[in-house]
Amino acid sequence: MTQENSAETTKKSNETVCPESSIDSANRRTFIRKAVAMTAAAGIGATLLGKNVLPESSAGSATCIVSCDVQVNDCLVVDNAGQNTGIYSCILGTGHSLSFGGVTCAGCCFPGFTSGEGIASNRFSNCNGNQYGLDFYTRSCKRMSITNCGRVGIGTNTPTSTLEVICTISGNCSTGLAIFGKSRGCGTGVYGCTTSGPGVFGCSSSSCGVHGRSAQGTGVRGSASESGAIPIVAQGAPCQTANLMQFEKSCGSALSVVNKSGWLGIGTTAPKTTLQVNGSLSASVASKSTNYSMTASDFAILASAATGAITITLPNANTAVGMMVLIKKTDSSTNAVKVARAGSDTIEGASSKSLTTRYASLTLISNGTNEWFIQSNAK
User: Fold this and answer.
1) pLDDT tops 70 at residue 234
2) Of 66, 100, 253, 307, which one has the greatest count of Cβ atoms within 10 A?
3) What residues have CB less than 8 Å from 274, skipping those under 6 apart?
4) pLDDT band for position 81 (50/70/90)?
5) What are the residues whose beta carbons fall under 8 Å from the beta carbon of 343, sequence distance 6 or more?
């Protein structure tokens, strides 16, 4: 196409879309002279569809609005001059952003055009944050941001992790769960995995930070891919008053809690001691008929010396302060069950104690350093 033909086509397009002869001063009709300029700049890649010229109270050749569709088969540049500051505006000439549903202009307002949906991209380093990222708006409020390095923030435009969600009261949206995940199959409602920081982090001022629900799988799952990582952390506020963790029935009533002081209540929502169990309690029990050295996972040893004397060696006293163990002789023979110390520990000053009669037992508690004390000694 020659330059003359191109110019002629542009002229005809201009006359078709915005004929100057149709300007009605009484109705203050305006038109976009730049519409055809955009078509010409994009070549055959852009096409204007539709011819609705909208009224504007301050008509002029520099600022005018046309209601039409644009098909672009090449790139579409928004804010070519790089003037956006990360703020969305639907006011013509001030936003430098992408607006959905239309725009307004000084002195006029088109019904339905001010619902406030758009996308902005801050081009400056000293205002509003998220330079060279994308900020998504609804109701003229910033809802979600994608940073230049690919991090996603909902309720924040400065996410410090791959996905950060902050619940806020904005644009008549109420507070609630920061993250809610639901799986209808055997999957996981909320799953986070990281090599260093938290896999999932939820913070809420009123409700739950993270809520996960699954039909058959796991509601919330934390996984550490490195040995030094912590799969799940519950962190309270500086003046925490509510429970740190709470396990509930489907109806919402609590089964057990970890309160603000870290005390664990099982079967109770108000533990009065470090551990309070409102129900039965069980501990490890093992039967032995040969020599055996107890470990930190042992509690009760039922020892039989029916075939010959045996020795049960206690765990190291420094395993844990207040660790308790029980050793009981179960057979009727005269063979002894010897309860021996580990290393240089003592049992109330002795290196060992013997159980020589059936059902004799020792219950001991550790001082956490080098000695065991007898709590009960049943003969």
Assistant:
1) yes
2) 66
3) 262, 263, 264
4) confident
5) 316
3-state SS assignment for residue 9: helix
Return d(Cα 88, Cα 257) in angstroms, integer.
Answer: 45
Q: Domain map of the chain by residue range?
A: 3-72, 77-181, 244-280, 285-378
Q: Which CATH architecture has domain 285-378?
A: Sandwich (2.60)
- Residue 287, φ and ψ in degrees, nearest 5: -100, 130
| DSSP-derived pairing of the beta strands 152-154 and 163-165 | parallel
> Could you tell me the strand order of the sheet in which 310-313 lies?
292-293, 310-313, 337-340, 352-355
Q: Tokens 């690919």 correspond to what residue?
A: 150
Q: Please state, for a pLDDT cut of 90, what percent of the chain lies above it.
A: 32
Question: Which residue is associated with the tokens 């930070």?
Answer: 209
Calpha distance 46→49 (Å, rounded)? 10
Burial class (CB in 10 A: 0-12, 13-18, 19+), 145: buried
Phi, psi at 13, each rounded to 5°:
-60, -40
Identify any residues that bridge with 338 across adjacent strands, giving them in sequence order: 311, 354
**Average pLDDT rounded to a whole number, residues 193-200:** 64
Q: What is the largest CA-CA distance in the chain?
A: 122
- Choose among 278, 297, 298: nearest CA to 288: 298
